[in-house]
Amino acid sequence: MATDEKPLRADAERNRRRVLDAAQALFGERGLDVGVGEIAQRAGVGRGTLFRNFPTKEHLIAAIVVERMNEAIARGRELLAADDPGVALYDFLEDTVGRQQADRALFEAVEETFLANPGIRAAHAEVIEVLDALLERAQRAGAVRTDVGAVDVLMLLKGVCQAATAFSHIDPGIAARQLDLVHAALTPPSGNAQALRGRAPTLNDIERAFEVDETLGAAAELG
Amino acid sequence: MATDEKPLRADAERNRRRVLDAAQALFGERGLDVGVGEIAQRAGVGRGTLFRNFPTKEHLIAAIVVERMNEAIARGRELLAADDPGVALYDFLEDTVGRQQADRALFEAVEETFLANPGIRAAHAEVIEVLDALLERAQRAGAVRTDVGAVDVLMLLKGVCQAATAFSHIDPGIAARQLDLVHAALTPPSGNAQALRGRAPTLNDIERAFEVDETLGAAAELG
């Protein structure tokens, strides 16, 4: 039995990969309205195979988003070995915003349910983990103020992504400009500057905020 | 005729005021789901009078948002006379975020159609005008870097409002903390810092971006 299972799993994995590749190609060509039937056809698998892997198109989109997040995480881990910790951190921020912009239709499609998806939630925690490591390294090198945390930075990045999305047709340079302002915000302040008010928010805070939002959303739908 | 019109207009204005006051009170007590019939009743006007002034509840909500924006603009104009131009600017930013947070349900309700409403569009232009004046004054005083414009600052503020909204149930202090980071971003950089990339976006850019978004939205609905 055990020897039979391996090729089966490899087969299943290959089919899953084919569906993901076909979906990414078709979404890229024609947007997210492409039907799942067409995706199955392009992938060369039956609709049953597609549905077994991805019960809804939202599951499929979420799986692609997780792949994109994993690429960002991998890039972040590489950058942990870069020579200049400050440059490495800003490379990661720029890279992350660039990826989000390149696939913003996908990210927008999962925005409402973002952390409700277990795969996205796990990848999100890993993004914060690698950002935290890059940030600490940059802080130890004196390149970044010591009173900010990874979630502070992530909030600033979210603003950058939104500004970039709103202006993408008018001025594609807006993300770079807002990132420069984030850079300035994170630069160690001069002697007489005040410390940030409050405490650095944590991953746990984000997850709780998301759960509260979900609860309120559900209550609003019932009410 | 001319002498008859004046009391009529005053009457109409009084009714409009009553409807706005009743709507604000009821929205505050029970949220935006309150029906217009109940608002007319509380205001002591007929439904016809309400509909003549506000054809839909969205018009009513937009009118309240415009009032809130006008209050922010008035506060900004006052602050133009304050002694310390840097403190005045940050007071305005903190005040603006505070107002948006206090009435975030109203602002969220008009978010999608924001600049499509002529009243909101005019108030929005005035907000940028007063922010621009406060910013220039702070820049002349050396309190703020000279390579940012009002729209750059507004984009940063939008990020602060979103972070504050997402965390309002978990950590109400998040807005203050993110505002401190905005403060740091706007502080004149030390000698060896790089200038911001690109050019400062303008009011015209925002209005064009909004129109492009509207067009894309309309195309998506048709397609």
Describe this structure in words.
2 copies of one chain form a homodimer. Chain A is mainly α and 223 residues long. Chain A is 74% helix and 0% strand. Chain A is built from 10 helices and no strands. In chain A, helix 4 crosses helix 6 and helix 8 packs antiparallel against helix 9. Chain A is elongated. The termini of chain A are far apart. The mean pLDDT of chain A is 91. The A-B interface holds A 33, 145, 148, 152, 155-156, 158-160, 162-163, 166-167, 169-171, 173-174, 176-178, 180-182, 184-187, 189-190, 193-194, 196-201, 205, 208-209, 212-213, 223 and B 33, 145, 148, 152, 155-156, 158-160, 162-163, 166-167, 169-171, 173-174, 176-178, 180-182, 184-187, 189-190, 193-194, 196-201, 205, 208-209, 212-213, 223.
Task: From the structure above, extract its key features.
223 residues; mainly alpha; 74% helix; elongated
Share in β-strands of chain A: under 5%
Largest sheet of chain A: none
Cα end-to-end separation of chain A = 53 Å
- Average pLDDT confidence of chain A is 91
Share of helix of chain A, binned: over 70%
Q: What pair of chains forms the biggest interface? A: A-B, 44 and 44 residues
Oligomer: homodimer
Number of helices of chain A: 10
Question: Helix/strand/pairing class of chain A, anyone?
Answer: mainly alpha
CA gyration radius of chain A, whole angstroms: 20 Å
Helix-strand string of chain A: HHHHHHHHHH
| Low-confidence region ranges of chain A | none
Shape of chain A: elongated
SS elements, strand count of chain A: 0
